[in-house]
Amino acid sequence: MTHPQLDQFVQKVDETLASYPTLCQYDRLRDLEKKTGQPKAYIFLVAFTILSTVIYSMGGMKLISDLSAFLYPAYMSFKAIDSADPVDDMQWLTYWVVFAAFSILENVASFLISWIPMYYMFKIGFFLWLYHPKFMAA
Fold first, then answer.
1. Cβ of 123: how many Cβ atoms within 10 Å?
2. Closest CA to 71 of 126, 3, 13, 128
3. Quick one: pLDDT at residue 23?
4. At the N or C end, where does the chain have fewer CB atoms within 10 A?
5. Spacing of C-alpha 77 from chain mean position
6. pLDDT in tens, the chain (138 residues)
7. What string of H, E and C letters represents the secondary structure of 44-67?
8. 94 burial level (CB within 10 Å; 0-12, 13-18, 19+)
9. How crowded is the C-beta side of 52, counted as CA atoms within 13 Å?
10. How far is it, in rounded angstroms, from Cα 137 to Cα 122?
């Protein structure tokens, strides 16, 4: 017996994975699906959970917030260097100035940060707002 909402969720995750085949290693997931008989979505979610747990156990929320504020913007900055559009360059240059200022402030005031509840969640939200394509707030 299958659950319709679960099937719908698995289908949506599979479509998302298919839209980013290189990043999500879609071909490998398809091979694993054939070998194990489990949906690609389950395999991806288990791998993502294990990776997130390892990263969290190594560096906690600080490492997760730093990675979320660094990885995608670094990738997009390299793409902006290759493009002819100066608006991209301005967006990412401004982003990195804010990122650097935030990092310096965070190191200098680390004793205060421990007193702010959910600081790292706010930091992730702030940086997502800065670099999300919908807002491009930097």
1. 21
2. 128
3. 83
4. N
5. 15
6. 568 888 899 899 999 999 988 888 899 999 999 999 999 999 999 999 999 999 999 999 999 999 999 999 999 999 999 988 888 899 999 999 999 999 999 999 999 998 999 999 999 999 999 999 999 898
7. HHHHHHHHHHHHHHHHHHHHHHHH
8. middle
9. 9
10. 16
Distance of CA 56 to the CA centre of its chain: 14
- Give, as one character, the DSSP assignment of residue 20: S
Q: Which two three-digit tokens encode residue 1?
A: 């017996």
Looking at residue 87, what DSSP letter applies?
Answer: H
CA 130 to centroid of chain Cα atoms: 14
Please report, as a single letter, which amino acid is at residue 54. Answer: V
Provide the pLDDT for residue 2.
67
Distance of CA 120 to the CA centre of its chain: 14
Query: Token pair 């990412």 is at which residue?
Result: 92
Q: How crowded is residue 95: how many other Cβ atoms within 10 Å of its Cβ? A: 21
